[in-house]
Design brief:
The protein has helices spanning 19-26, 33-41, 50-61, 64-68, 72-77, 82-105, 113-124, 161-170, 191-205, 232-238, and strands at 131-137, 143-151, 175-181, 210-217, 222-224. With 239 residues, it is α+β, with helices and mostly antiparallel strands.
């Protein structure tokens, strides 16, 4: 094979720029991001190599995170990568997300805001729209279930308290952690976030269900109502 491993679809790449062969011989960790993308693309398009196409995609999108936030249909139009490459790339990114989720599931208990954020980060951080979710916990703060209950702008009209109550009763939860994301990246709670938290905590208290925290997830961090002393029940105790 004249030193070639025999991969198909790589004739367009120069001898010293064949990422599949390098990946096979040395491992994927030695490759750059655009080389890994080129492996997924397999081939380029007329007049453009897979390597150049992957460079253009990264430059136009800005980052892998930005790429991950786009649907396959949206991706297909960037740099004209087409349907097949867009679907392949989306599938690879989804597998990566699920791999992260598998490792997070190993943590059966949530001890504080940091644990909650690690659980929520792969689920909420890169979503392009707002989601309101609830982690349902038992008496020892073990995770019973995670539910994404509402999508869209998070305010009193978008989040229906009766649905939150219904799910808490269905899961027989002793405690809950609320969570939602801010796609803008700014994790500071709005007045609506604070009012909603107070309303829901009051309703849950009548069912003897404790609100442990409300976590806002942003692009590069999080905000914990409990850590910042914003939970209504905590304010009453310290007031």
């Amino acid at each position: 094979m004249n030193g070639s491993i025999g991969f198909t679809g790589i004739k367009e790449w120069p001898q010293g720029e064949r990422p599949r062969e390098r990946c096979f011989e040395k491992g994927c960790d030695v490759l750059s991001t655009h080389e890994l993308l080129a492996i997924l693309f397999r081939t380029g398009k007329k007049g453009v190599t897979a390597i150049d196409l992957s460079r253009s995609l990264l430059k136009e999108a800005g980052s892998l995170r930005a790429i991950a936030q786009k649907s396959p249909k949206e991706l297909s139009s960037i740099c004209g990568i087409g349907v097949v490459r867009a679907v392949t790339l989306s599938a690879a990114l989804e597998l990566s997300r699920r791999f992260v989720l598998e490792s997070v599931k190993e943590a059966e208990r949530i001890e504080g805001a940091d644990d909650a954020y690690e659980f929520l980060k792969p689920r909420l951080r890169d979503l392009p729209h707002e989601v309101f979710a609830v982690i349902f916990l038992n008496q020892k703060h073990g995770i019973i279930a995670y539910r994404e209950l509402f999508r869209g702008t998070i305010n009193g009209s978008a989040v229906h308290p009766r649905e939150v109550i219904k799910e808490a009763l269905r899961e027989n939860a002793a405690a809950v952690i609320f969570a939602h994301n801010h796609p803008s990246g700014n994790v500071i709670p709005s007045p609506e976030d604070i009012a909603l938290t107070e309303q829901l905590e009051t309703l849950l208290s009548h069912l003897d269900v404790r609100l442990i925290d409300h976590i806002i997830v942003g692009g590069n961090g999080s905000y914990s109502f409990a850590r910042e002393g914003l939970l209504p029940s905590k304010r009453k105790k310290t007031g």
